[in-house]
Amino acid sequence: MGCAPLSNRKGSRREFLLLIAALLPAFAVGCESSAPYKKVHLNAGGEGAATAPFQPGKTTLRVAMAAVISPKETLRTYNQLLDYLGAKLGRPVLLVQRATYAEINELLRSGNADLAFVCSEAYVRGNRDFGMEMLVAPQVRGEALYRSYIIVPLDSTAQEVADLRGRTFAFTDPLSNSGHLAPTYLLWQMGTTPEAFFSKYVFTYSHDNSIKAVAEKLVDAAAVDSLVYDYSIARDPRYRGKTRVIWKSPPYGSPPVVVHPALDPELKSRLRDLFLKMNEDAEGRAVLSDLMIDRFVIPDDRAYEAIREMDSKLRLQSEGK
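User: That's the sequence. What structure does it adopt?
Assistant: Structure tokens below.
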């Protein structure tokens, strides 16, 4: 599933990437087969703060998060939640940001983070690779589920996914279900691949960057998380009325909050209890309301089976089996 040869692609790939890089500096652009992900350190405590050896029960709780929305927006959006957890736990909470889900999984796997907010496919991969554990998942509008959306500019001629053949496209992250796996699986069901179907594609590494790329017509379409899309459209008037959804996936288990498998059981229990009871006090409800979350719930692992199946089928296809 690497990049198609440049000679087989329409237009100048270099010009396309330069356009994206110039207009959206936060983009990390390229194809799935490009060099290993560039590591971007955005943790508030400095790079060294995220490299301490794993110590169960350590005073500082290290919370890892990829820039599902842009880094500054992630800080603004989640600071209240982390402050709430720190106050309830009676310990400092360190936010450790990274650019990709692969880096977040590695932080948790290596013990350099205790808790993380990840996407559903990152959880499926982490659970399979090192026993990453789900703690809770957000419930929005009465369900702990979400979808992948494919969006286009409001005035696009595209009415369905088939109309996007030969156009430009934005994925979010190689380990994002809604932003990569689900739409790639859809193309597989259509008998094609991103390399063959699109003229060019990029990875933006955040859903709001993908929304921005479509709203500003830097790409013809993008795959985004339905929860982030609904949140962004509701909260950011710059993009309201500039995009529309042409495809919705089946529902999948919501992106969960996960923990290192060796995290102290008592701390794990306290964290789960705090998340589950946030909606029972005024401060917690205010934080949830700002995040547009009803409450946190214990997720049903069966809701992630469809993601495991898609991941397995695409891996077998890429291996030629």
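Residues 1-12, 22-57 have pLDDT under 50 and may be disordered.
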